[in-house]
Amino acid sequence: MPAIVSDVLKNSIAEELEIVKGDEILSIDGKKMSDMIDYNFLSKSDFLTIEIKKQNGEIEEIELEKDFDEDLGIVFESAVFDRVKPCLNKCIFCFVDQQPKGLRETLYIKDDDYRLSYLQGTYITLTNLKEEDKNRIKNMHLGPFYVSVHTTNPELRVKMLRNPNAGKALENLLWFRKNKIPFHAQIVLCPGYNDGKELERTLSDLAKLKNTVLSVAIVPVGITQFRLEGLKQVDKKCAEETIEIASKYKRVCCSDEFFLLAEKEIPKAKYYGNFSQLEDGVGTLRLLLDDFKKLELPEKISKNFNIAFATSYAAKYAIEKIVKKLNKIKNLNVTVNPVKSDYWGRDITVAGLITTDDLIKTISGLDSDLVVIPSVMLRQYSEDFLDGKNLDYVKSKTGKSFLVVENIYSVKEVVDYLWNL
Length: 421
Hints:
Oligomer: single chain
Radius of gyration: 24 Å
Number of strands: 14
Order of helices and strands: EHEHEEEHEHEHHEHEHEHHEHEHEHEH
Strand order of the largest sheet: 6-7-8-9-10
Structural class: alpha/beta
Distance between the termini: 47 Å
Helix content: 25-40%
Shape: globular
Largest sheet: 5 strands, parallel
């Protein structure tokens, strides 16, 4: 898609230049842009000539002088201005392929674009990385990237990703090492495939790349009721074994789910380093618990008040610890209500996949003045759930009031709410 403006920051250069939503940036200093990488590079100069196509079709050329590195204040509809590089794999564990029809169209998009990995932290497999891509990465010193490694065994990786190019993973990672390009690694653990000795091999190979590997996150495979192939869920024994193997290596962390499955305490903050793979659920619960400890709680509130946390099963562990302390506040009653996923199947336990009907079933009969849900249940910058229905629909079906908090559960927002009661 072209470089279409979606928003302009207040008091910015773009606002002063009367650039508005819907305008298209055609070029900067006569150079066309293929993505935000080009835009960020070209827009740094002190003197710029910007070619803009206005909504009415007119083309304007604007010359301006600014401080070096000063941001123009333009927000684009997309981080890439040409075709997103598609995923060419057919991974045995691919979650996109486990979805039924009827969800938001964006949920069926499979990208494998190194530019989005650099700009937005999405995971790439490197199976479609071309020499021209490598040259650009090297020449522009791009990084870090987020790489879905899964295994460094060439034959096994081809089998798991079902792509003949998948076997070149270690070769590409060695190229990263040679050119000092840092990356974060992800391993989706599939019992019977890349666990046990194969996991040992992968972690050993990654360790040889030394500080080129900034972190390694191990996450359990997610299996919905729509999965046709015979994948196995990670069970307690597998979780215990995986945690033990990971403990032998530096900068390797298991996601929170492994500790819940192994019935072990969530590790202390030191285990997670700089929490670089929170999107993979690595350290989310620890941050939640530690942030709660810093909050000052009121001794009482002015009236009897009931709060219901509608949680994922993955967050239940931490929320229960927090609710136990919240219930010491006089006149306050707080309950934890994990949402059972009838839509996806009971093995799906994360908040980002909760649908409206499953949420409605959980909270309809609750005696609550307020229902707390995390923003991850909703599409970014909206109140839409992944099944296409929105929060107003849930309100109309339940008659409940809601507090949407940032991230998985930002308990600070709940506590601030209590102070204002």
